[in-house]
Task: inverse folding
């Protein structure tokens, strides 16, 4: 018997045999939402697997957690062969998970997006192989290739960096929650742009799947460039960061573009688009002169309201090291945002952190040496055990 | 209020119950009598509330044949402690659907209450709370048991709960593939 059980009392076998499945189900409903926890429980024995794979249980479990998929970890792009590309993030009070294996993929695969339980990779041209998009569902382990758009060649004429997103077509409910959409139809949106033109191609999985003709927009202002950071989708609108002082809005239904001017106070600052209040456009802006962050909430047209402003060196644990003469924190980079978790990621010279926007709690991400200072792509998903054919449901 | 009167004091208990209608007397499967505040019993247990309202409470001790004396003592203890703590509105609302309502974290006294229980007593209390329709007590006990699984590998969970691994080799091979890319650490 291991050390840790000998210090506790075990359940007596007779007691255990008496426990009806209903009670275990009740107990499992109290587990935290992070996928690795239900995963481990489902691996304990066959009857626990049956209980945790039950669709009714999974519905209740999600509802218990407000139908908001938990953050499991972040994907990142460190593109050398063998680099780990996923860092799990555990819940509060839990030890970091040992990373004995860790997810790796070919070095020429770049993570483009991670949204609604799907992960989108861009496999660059490699030897004789043409570039291709790869869509992966880590829970069902389904993987599909999507060819680049047929009119892909037009993109070669454009400067700028290509960005891509995968968007579920099911949309959000009135409270901004998304629900379980794993098998539903989806879109892939590719975007590139530098003043004056932005180009977009949209792939729809419906009707066997296919690309629409590329759509261009000649309204990018001077110096503006589409920043290849993950977009934010609110309702039918995809919001993409543009360098300078604007946000590019693309309506997925009407395929039309609008420029949303950012607050004038934030010109040329590093911006992270976020979804606030369940369905409002927000901008977290880093002011590196005063080492502060600001949250702005969009009220429509050019009406922005600043909700808060906070000096980063007043937040733990940065405050401890930010005393004069201790460490120069330098600049802060905004490197990603949770889709549903109301948190952003930031990078400082001291490491990468997750900032919870409601509580202003900073949590350092523990990671191995391969973590990047580039964008992080949060993977937010519940776990659902797959049915094993030999275990009756 | 000390509650376990034992068999010898049954007569006295009955007199007290008759004189003071603020309490009800409950009888465990092994015949022990326990006294609990009527108000707390009605508020915390849908089953006892129904019995009180329906007049099926026996002043000589309402038979609860499914509940042993140790579990019933804990139930009564919980009711009394609950009556003494300041009830928060969220705890006593019973109209919310049980499975999906967000769980309110145990209060300090509730945590202490379940922490001192042995595994077997805890499981007995889950069954008693379920039988008596005590949603909050069921929540608090289930939550405690779920916390015993936190941060543990499947092997460690099996040890804690004394569970046999009954997966076949092939099944184990199949399920080990799940999320293995990110999480498998067993």
Result:
């Amino acid at each position: 018997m291991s050390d840790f059980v000998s210090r506790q009392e075990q359940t007596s076998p007779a007691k255990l045999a008496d426990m009806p499945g209903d009670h275990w189900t009740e107990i499992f409903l109290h587990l935290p939402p992070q996928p690795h926890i239900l995963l481990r429980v489902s691996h304990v024995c066959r009857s626990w697997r049956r209980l945790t794979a039950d669709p009714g249980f999974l519905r209740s479990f999600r509802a218990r957690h407000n139908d908001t998929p938990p953050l499991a970890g972040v994907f990142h792009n460190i593109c050398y062969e063998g680099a780990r590309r996923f860092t799990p993030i555990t819940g509060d009070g839990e030890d970091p998970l040992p990373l004995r294996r860790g997810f790796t993929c070919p070095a020429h695969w770049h993570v483009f997006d991670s949204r609604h339980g799907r992960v989108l990779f861009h496999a660059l041209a490699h030897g004789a192989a043409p570039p291709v998009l790869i869509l992966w569902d880590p829970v069902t382990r389904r993987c599909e290739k999507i060819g680049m758009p047929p009119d892909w060649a037009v993109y070669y004429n454009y400067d700028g960096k290509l960005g891509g997103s995968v968007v579920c077509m099911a949309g959000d409910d009135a409270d901004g929650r998304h629900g379980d959409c794993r098998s539903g139809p989806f879109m892939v949106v590719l975007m590139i742009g530098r003043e004056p033109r932005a180009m977009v191609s949209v792939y729809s999985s419906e009707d066997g799947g296919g690309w629409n003709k590329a759509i261009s927009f000649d309204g990018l202002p001077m110096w503006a460039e589409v920043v290849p950071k993950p977009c934010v989708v609110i309702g039918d609108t995809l919001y993409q960061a543009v360098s300078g002082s604007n946000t590019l809005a693309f309506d997925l239904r009407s395929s039309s573009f609008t420029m949303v001017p950012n607050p004038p106070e934030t010109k040329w600052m590093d911006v992270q688009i976020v979804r606030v209040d369940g369905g409002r456009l927000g901008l977290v802006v880093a002011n590196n002169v005063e080492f502060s962050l600001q949250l702005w909430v969009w009220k429509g047209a050019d009406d922005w309201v600043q909700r808060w402003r906070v000096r980063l060196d007043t937040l733990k644990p940065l405050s401890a090291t930010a005393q004069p003469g201790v460490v120069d924190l330098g600049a802060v980079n905004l490197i990603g945002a949770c889709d549903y978790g109301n948190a952003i990621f930031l990078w400082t010279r001291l490491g990468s952190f997750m900032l919870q926007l409601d509580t202003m709690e900073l949590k350092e991400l523990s990671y191995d040496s391969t973590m990047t200072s580039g964008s992080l792509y949060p993977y937010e998903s519940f776990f659902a055990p797959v049915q094993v054919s030999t275990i009756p449901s | 209020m000390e509650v376990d009167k034992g068999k010898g004091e049954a007569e006295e208990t009955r007199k007290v119950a008759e004189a003071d209608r603020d309490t009800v007397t409950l009888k465990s499967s092994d015949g022990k009598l326990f006294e609990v505040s009527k108000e707390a019993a009605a508020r915390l247990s849908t089953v006892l509330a129904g019995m009180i309202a329906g007049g099926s409470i026996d002043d000589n001790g309402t038979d609860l044949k499914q509940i042993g004396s140790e579990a019933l003592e804990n139930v009564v203890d919980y009711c009394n402690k609950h009556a003494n703590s300041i009830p928060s509105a969220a705890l006593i609302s019973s109209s919310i659907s049980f499975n999906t309502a967000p769980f309110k974290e145990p209060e300090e006294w509730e945590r202490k209450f379940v922490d001192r229980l042995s595994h077997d007593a805890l499981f007995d209390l889950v069954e008693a709370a379920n039988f008596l329709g005590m949603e909050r007590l069921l929540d608090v006990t289930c939550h405690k048991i779920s916390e015993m699984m936190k941060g543990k590998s499947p092997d460690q969970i099996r040890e804690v709960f004394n569970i046999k691994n009954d997966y076949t080799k092939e099944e184990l091979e199949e399920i080990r593939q799940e999320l293995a890319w990110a999480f498998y650490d067993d």
About this structure: Residues 15-19, 88-99 of chain B have pLDDT under 50 and may be disordered.
